[in-house]
Write a structure and sequence with these properties.
Elements: E1 4-6, E2 9-19, E3 32-35, H1 38-42, E4 47-54, H2 61-72, E5 81-85, E6 90-95, E7 103-110, E8 140-147, E9 152-159, H3 165-180, E10 212-213, E11 231-238, H4 240-248, H5 256-271, E12 279-287, E13 305-308, E14 311-313, H6 314-319, H7 321-334, H8 338-351, E15 357-358, E16 371-375, E17 392-397, E18 405-410, E19 418-425, H9 426-435
Parallel strand pairs: 7-8, 12-16, 16-18
Antiparallel strand pairs: 1-2, 2-7, 3-6, 4-9, 4-17, 5-6, 8-9, 10-15, 11-19, 12-13, 12-14, 18-19
Helix pairs in contact: 2-3, 5-7, 5-9
């Protein structure tokens, strides 16, 4: 295979294999259909790719692959495949039966030192460090990139319809334990007994048009696209000391996420040069595990997320200051309570046999004046410990050719805090860099 060049490092693919939970000699089992829930169908129909960089020493590839096989035994949906159930008349996960399942594992070498490329910074070339999601049908794909020093960058790509970020954080933590030979003490929960519509089902909230897009011929969808080369990704670092100052400006009345989100919502609105009369919206994913009653197990594996939609007039947002922006976000998130989740479940019962197209899938690649803010701080990604003494040195999403996303990541350095991955048009990103840490 031809080498792939990335910032003066040569990435040479050595081997690509498909593995399953039971190994090559596992007996075949009949296919089982697991219908996608309304929450699964609300998730983006794409792979989400992330990169983990570990300093030397790290376990051998064989140990990493054996750990995957042992972990997949408890997370079987990750080695399944997407299909359509004629019985239930809706998309489903097909487990067993052969025909495109398993996980893709790519092993590669890099002819440079890992330290030459740390900390990882957003770059289109980062896509070379994980498998191309469009190249195979596997829902779970991983690439092990070995450096001359023994360092390792692991590139994961996982389909969002199978699991949300909370679930994948649990998987990565479990896999790291399996690699170390430690027991997986928190097993995933697949029970969906909480997914009960009311009788009769009813929707108190407007999910058509906001969460899902009607596919009727008379419904026009405004899709905005721009040349991907005009979009850039940047990483902004907010140390713990800075966050304390920022929260002091709102008298510590709001969470760190609400405060930093409000700060960046205002700064990005300025950087985008939006007009005073315009309106801007933020999509904020909200985890339902702790909001449904009775509570859903924190170990539930799958998707259980809906969006809050804070909205604001540009002039009000800027003139009202940080407190106003934070209060808008706080109030919108608070409205996503058990009643909202129950309405969402009932919507799935009423419209489950219809084509459900989430708003994500018709956005185009230009969200402005909308933003999406995803917090990965509590997903336990930063807790991965593969053993051998090599520490996690960097964690980053891969390059995203899509404008309007923000991902909050745990700061790994001594300063702690939060790193924020932002995707914007290049000229807007340059202005954001200049004003991103101003406390005004």
């Amino acid at each position: 295979m031809l080498p792939k060049i990335l910032h003066n490092m040569e990435v040479q693919v050595q081997r690509s294999t498909i593995i399953s939970d039971g190994g090559p000699n596992a007996p075949a089992v009949p296919a089982t259909e697991v219908p996608l829930t309304v929450f699964d169908r609300f998730a983006s129909n794409i792979h989400i790719a992330v990169l983990f960089a570990f300093a030397s020493p790290t376990p051998a590839n064989d140990a990493l692959v054996d750990g995957l096989r042992n972990t997949f035994k408890h997370f079987p949906t990750l080695t399944a495949r997407l299909g359509y159930s004629l019985t239930h008349r809706r998309p489903c996960i097909l487990m067993g039966g052969g025909g495109g399942g398993g996980a893709q594992v790519v092993e590669a070498t890099v002819s440079s030192e890992l330290s030459d490329h740390l900390p990882l910074k957003p770059s289109p070339e980062l896509q070379r460090l994980h498998p191309n999601p469009g190249a195979g049908a596997q829902l779970f794909q991983v690439q092990f990139n070995r450096f001359m020093c023994g360092g390792l960058i692991i590139g994961f790509s996982v389909h969002h319809r199978v699991a949300d970020g909370h679930s994948m954080g649990a998987f990565f933590t479990a896999w790291a334990k399996a690699v170390r030979g430690a027991p997986i003490d928190r097993l995933p929960v697949y029970d969906q007994s909480w997914l009960k519509p009311r009788r009769p089902p009813r929707c108190e909230f407007q999910h058509w048009g906001q969460d899902f897009i009607p596919t009727t011929p008379h419904h026009n969808v405004l899709t905005k696209n721009v040349d991907p080369s005009k979009i850039t990704n940047i990483l902004l670092k907010y140390p713990s000391d800075y966050l304390k100052k920022l929260k002091a400006k709102v008298d510590n009345k709001f969470t760190t996420f609400e405060t930093l989100s409000a700060h960046l919502w205002r700064k990005i609105t300025i950087a985008r040069r939006l007009q005073d009369y315009e309106h801007t919206t933020v999509r904020v994913p909200v985890n339902g595990r702790a909001r449904l009653k009775p509570l859903v197990s924190d170990d539930f594996f799958g998707n259980l997320v809906v969006n809050a939609y804070p909205k604001g007039n540009v002039k009000v947002l800027i003139d009202g200051g940080l407190v106003k922006a934070a209060s808008i976000i706080h109030e919108a998130i608070a409205e996503i309570d058990k009643g909202y989740f129950q309405s969402f479940i009932d919507f799935g019962e009423l419209h489950g046999e219809e084509e459900l197209v989430p708003a994500y899938d018709v956005d185009g690649n230009l969200l402005s004046p909308t933003l999406e803010m995803d917090s990965w701080v509590r997903f336990r990604f930063h807790e991965m410990d593969l053993g051998g003494g090599g520490e996690l040195r960097s964690f980053l999403p891969t390059w995203v050719p899509f404008e309007g996303l923000m991902m909050f990541l745990p700061g790994l350095g001594e300063e702690g805090g939060v790193d924020v991955f932002v995707t914007l048009l290049q000229d807007h990103a340059e202005l954001l860099r200049q004003i991103s840490h101003s406390l005004d």
